Amino acid sequence: MFFQTTYKTGLTALPMTIAASLTPQVATAHEAWLLTPDEITALATAPMPAIFTSSLILGLAAGIGCAGTVAALHFEEFLRPYEKRVAPALKNMGSQIGPAVMRIALAAMLGLAGLGGLPRHGTALWVEPTLLVPDMQLSLVPGWEWVAACQLVMAVLLLVGLMTRITGLGLIGLSILGLPIFGAPFLAYAPHFIAPGLIIALIGGGTFSLDRLLSLHRQATILDPQIIWRLAQILVGAGFVYLAVMYKLTQPTLLIAILQHGDMPTFGLSFALIALIMTGVEIICGILLMTGRLIRPVSLVIIGAISFLALTLGETPLFHTNLYGCMILFALMGRTWSVTNEGPSSYERALA
Fold this sequence. Notes:
- The chain has helices at 2-21, 29-34, 37-44, 55-115, 146-160, 164-182, 191-203, 210-213, 225-248, 252-261, 271-291, 295-313, 321-333, 346-351.
- With 352 residues, the protein is an all-alpha fold.
């Protein structure tokens, strides 16, 4: 009942949020990774497509989105008995391999960011270390270059699974630190790194980690694990809604530009309409994650969307390994986390 109420409240507040957010913003987020600063400056002053300035069209799109969400919730009831059948196997898989997936995903992103291996478009490879994401270049903020070394240390710890939970807390701290370092633009990224930090602090190193080998894997938290798990899902969902509302709706020319650069197939639709559809899907998926509904299907949809865009636009999937890790775990575990990683895994018992 609580989440149903939250869901309805979110839908009621969404039009007001969109209306309040339709103001010019400095370009950031995904578009800033794939466009040069000069392109962003030019596109930011370009006229918005009519489809994004028409109250009638936006209202119609919101109505269609609400109707689609209601239909999805009815589909959840149909899907529930089938999901219950496979949930135990998925949860077992998630508890066994989930921590390793999350560790490796975060280690890859932290290591590459610290070495300059995830540059924004137009920046040479291995030259500009960044804070987690391509457009947060540490060279632009003198005195914070040491953050690159911190990311490398964290990457190594996660890769071998040593002090995993402490490293997860460190990632949360690093994500929060990004706000005073880079200001408001980092708010677009912080939730999507605080969430995996919470997850890794909750689940630990898992199978084949040094924490497990050295018996440092025991869970020690003062919070209910389910609260942490749900908070991570809420943060990921809120991050998607924030990005869609604050950037895709206010500066659709940037999204349209990267779709055109990538020669994305349009299936007979205009790029403006595709951008609007993508924005709506991102908002709906974000709201469903926040309210704890259709967690597994939504996670699979997001994985598919990220992969499709990466292939279409010619970008590396490594830009989103933090989200891949979260979505894989959400798809396996669903709305709740089952703490079954306290003893040896089935794989370790087989090797014993």
